[in-house]
Each structure stands twice: as structure tokens, then as C-alpha cells.
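Anyone? Bumping this.
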Amino acid sequence: MFEDGFIVRSVGTVAFAAFAFAAILLFLIVKLYRMNRKMRSEAANVRQVENELVRVNKFLADFQRAIDISSIISITDRKGSITYANDNFEKISGYSKEELIGKNHRIINSGYHDRSFWVNMWKTISKGKVWRNEVKNKAKNGSYYWVDTYIIPFLDEYGRIQQFLSVRNDITERKAVEEALLLLNRDLEHRIAEKTQSLASANLELTKMNHLMETVQKHARIGVWELDIRAGKTFWSDEVYIIHELPLQASMTLEESIRFYHPDHTAQMKAAIDAAIQKGIKWDMELKFITNNKNEIWVRTIGLPAMENGETVAVQGWLQDITRRKTAEFEIISMNALLESHSQKLETINRELESFTYSVSHDLRAPLRSIYGYCEILKEDYAGSLDEEGNKALDIVIKNAGRMGQLIDDLLEFSRLGRKGMDKSIGNMQEVVENVSREIASQEKGRKIRLLIHPLEPVKADVQMMRQVWVNLVSNAVKYTRKTAEPVIEIGGKSDKDKITYFIKDNGVGFNMKYAGKLFEVFQRLHRADEFEGTGVGLALVKRIVKRHGGEIWAEASENKGATFYFTLPKN
Amino acid sequence: MNDSNFVEILLVEDNPDDAGLTIRALKKNNLCNHLLHLKDGEEALNFLFSEDLSNRNLKLILLDIKMPKVDGIEVLRKLKSDPSKKSIPVVALTSSKEERDIIQSYELGVNAYIVKPVNFEKFVSAVSELGHFWLALNQPPLKTKK
């Protein structure tokens, strides 16, 4: 209405005003038009943005759905409190969303990872960087699960952390496999280490054993060998070559090696090998052998078949040079044969001697008894018919027959002693000596004999024989002191380390040491029978007993000054 | 019963001289009234195993060991293995002092073993002692048939 007022005042002004009005109107129309056009384009823009927004939202929703299905998702605030957990989180952890929201992730901490692990995580995400690692978590029921974890910090426009998104994927199975693998590996490594160790020590043992075997083989002259039937190969240890007197490692077929046996034994060896290969029978034989240098030796050969499924696959064995032993054996055999023939001869002689003494015993005694007996009858019945000379002659016959009887008895006793077995026991020598002395002294009626018996220790001997020794020695002492006014007989013994020396000393007639050598011989006497009766067998008998006990006997004497007899007995 | 049938002592001895000495020694002691002297083992076996001994009143056999043909050991063996004769006392009266003879005789059941002494006095005393012992002192088992 402003333009109308203006028109009233002036037509010119009105024209101008109309013009101005038209111009302004035009301007406005243009402006409006432009505005309208702009508005229209802007509306189209808004529609376009709106459409875009819808599209983006859908994409995001799809994306989230995809991630929710495939992964375990959680979101925490800056301080680590859970603000969001998806279904997968619930499923794997066993905790419900209500239990999780507001809690820290420590709720599922398994304690498997150390502090530095978590420190490193916080350091990384605090700097706004993505942290990725494999984490072992603990579910509500106490079971463990492994997750491949991403933690992605979300920042605001100023770069400050707003929250953290965790995306996890279950890798429990893979981890289990990995762990099993790890364990397996570790076990394997351990076993390998162990094996290596034992192999090393076995190797050392083997080296030692080999060395030992070689030494033994060399010294015992034993070689070991193996015939591998399947491979058709033979192995000989060095000593086998040495026994054959072949260069080491010389090649040798089975046939060739059999030919080293002595022709007498080749067939035997061949048969043994055949039996081993065909029937699995082992052999152990001592055979003659001819070496490469044509030396005849003896070997012991042993073969042990190795069987597989009832079939001989190899024969192992050893070969030993036993020449020295065999030689010794043969020597022993021939010596034994010699000894055998000697002892047979000896036995024959002994038998002859025995039958001789037997006939002496019987055949000599019988006629003697007749001589003695019928002389006595003559004396009894016809003494009156004979004169004094006749009676005296008869007495002499009787006396000598008696003496001969005694000689025969003593001689038989002496020879019997040689054949009699010894019965050694611990004998009380003191008792033997005392009993014997008492018996003999008691037979010497009217004589006063001083007997001095020193303590005698027990000795291991044939007591019966010892009795005989003392009977003879004491009898002698008693007999040869018959002419002594005050007879003294002293008996004692001296013990040494390995023997006891006994003595019996008298103060009788003694003897000349010139004849001492004859003293202990059979029928040898140093006194005439009309001085001292006797057969000359007693001391020979004593010597024989002492000798059989392994002892010695000797005497010291001088004429009319008594005699001392000594003898020893070994303590063992 | 006729006394002349009696053989109280049977002397088996091949050596007539020894037999003479034994008989004289027994006579001295009046033990010789019913003595039969046989000269070897064969005769002894013939007498002992073919005769009826039941009414002979046999009290003692004096047996030499070493005799021709059948020896004393053999006689002893046959006697002692016969149930009807093994209770007759047998004394070996011999020259043999050999241990194997003594051992064998005792194993076969000899009642005594006497070695004849060379010395006549000893011989007489030995024979008279054994005669007295076996004929007078010894009590034989009762005979059922008499």
C-alpha cells in the first residue's frame, strides 16, 4: 500500500513509482523464482540424504547382525565396565547379559595370562590402538575357552577414548589341538633327547664291549662268526682269521672254510652244519683242524642256529683254539694210563704179598705148632725115659719153636701194618702212654722202675697204632734197664708250630751209635738173644707207624749210659 | 638111646697132627668121649647133611678154616643158612689170623673164632676152656625131638 500513496501525490511520480514498483516487483518475482528453485532443489537434497540415511542404517544393522552371528561382541566404557554383550558372549561365557552388564571383563579371567599381558593390553588400547591377542577365558561353569580377541578403542572427535569394542572368536578347538601338538612335541623332544642320551651311552658301552670282546677273543683264542643264510654272507671276527692263520678279511666260502677241518672230522663238521641249517640243531664239538699254514691244531666249534618261523635264517657261533688244553688232556690221559698200569701192577704185587703172608701165617705156624706141641707131649709122657741130655735137647727144640712162632707173629704184624688203613682221630696221648706204661711195668714183677711221664697234649693219629708204638718203646726201655740198679724211664713231648716231638729216655744199657743205622731195620738187633730176648721187629714196626703218620724217628745213645728215642708227629 | 651114637663134638681138621693136639687137649679135660674127627669140609658136609642128627646130641663143631676141597667158610655158610642146623654152636679153630677170615666167619654167624697158639701150653688151655664153655656152661636151645 505504500506505492498507492505515492501515486496520489504525483503522476510523474506515479510513473516513476509505477516503474519502480514494477522493477521492485520484477526483482521480487525473480528473487522468488530463484528462491523457489533453490527451495525445490534443497528439498530434493533432503530427500536424497534421507534415503541415504535409511540405506546406511540398514547396512549397519546388517553388519551388526553379521558380526553378532559370527563373533563374540562386547562393548565396555572407558573404565572397562561392560555396557554391551551379544548372544554369543552369553553362550560361550555361560553368563547372562544381566550378569555381564556393568561388570568388568575380569569376570571371565582364567588367570592363565600373567600381569604383563594385561598391562600390555591396556597400554595399547589406552593409546587408541587396536590390540589383538589370543586369550584364555574362564566360563561360569569353570571350563576354559580360548578366543582370538580384538579390542578396538572408539574415540570422540577430540581423539579421546569413549568406549572399547571387543570382537572375539572361539579358537578353543584350535588351541586344544595346538596344545596337544605342543605337548606331543615336547614329549617327542624329550624322548628324542632321552634316546639320544641312551644311544650315546649305548654306543660307549658298545665300544667298550667290542674292545673287551676283542681282548677276550685274543687271549682265550676264541673267534666269533656268523653265517647269514638269507643274505648269503659270513662274518668272521679277527680271531677266526688268526686261528685259521689266514690274512684278516680274506674272503672265504662256507665250503672252503669246512675244508680247514682235519680229513678225519670234515664229514662230522659238514653234517653238523647241515643239521643246523635244515633242522635248527646246534653243535658243540672238539675237532682236529689244519690251519692255512698246515699246522694241526684242535678247535672247539660251537654253532647256534637263529630261527625265524621254524626256519634257520642264520647260524652264529664261535671257534676256539683248544690245542693247549687238548695236549694237556692227552698228556693226562696217557699219564693216567701209565698210572693205571702201575697201580695195577702194584695191586698185583700187593695181592701176591698178601697171599704170601697169608700162607706164611697159616702154613708156617701149623708145622711149628706140631713141633712145639709134640715135643711137649714127648716131655709130658716120656720125660722119664730120657736122660738129662735128652730132656735138655727137647727143651731147646721147644724154646726155639716158641721163638720162631714169635718171629712169625711179629713179621705178620709188621706186614699187616703196611696194608692196614689208618684211622686218624684226636687221641689222648697222655692216657695211651700211662696205660701202656702201667701194663708193661706190672708185668715186671719184683722190679722197681721209676716212671716219669710229663704232660702230653692230644694229637691227631691212629690211636691203635700209637698204642703199638708206645708198647714197643716202653717195652724196650723196660727190657734194656733190666741190669740197671735204679731204672728210670722218662717220657715227654715238645710242641712246635707244626709238629710234636716225643721222647722216651732210659738209663739202661744203651748202644753204640756206630750201629744206630741198623736200629730200625727188620730183624736187626744190637744185642745178643742170650743178653736180651727179642726178634728185631719192634723198632722197625715203630718206624713204620711213625713214617705212615708223616713223622720221623731217631735215637741217641751211648753204651751203658742209656738211650733216648725221639719221634715226631705232624700236627695236621 | 645108645650113648655110642652120640657125637657131642665134631672136629673138622685136615691136619692130623693138629687134630692130635686138639684131641689130646680135650682128652686131658675128659671132654673127648663123643668126638668125631672128619678130615675136610666135604666129609663134614656129608655127615651134617645126610645123617639124621636128631639123636646125635651134637653140642659143638670145631671147624678149621683152611682145608682142601671144601673149606671151613663154605661149611659155615651152609650150616648157618640151614634153619635146622644154624643153632649148632660152631667155633672156628684155625691157624689163620687173617682179618678177612675173621670178619667173614663172624658175618656168616660163627659163634667163636680161636687162633691156635703155637705154644702148646697155651693151646691146651685154649682148647680146654672152649670145651668147658660150650659143653658144660653153654645152654643150647631145647630140642623138640629127643
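Late reply, but here is one note on the structure posted above: Chain A touches chain B at residues 358, 361-362, 365-370, 372-377, 398, 401-402, 404-405, 408-409, 412, 416 (CB under 8 Å).
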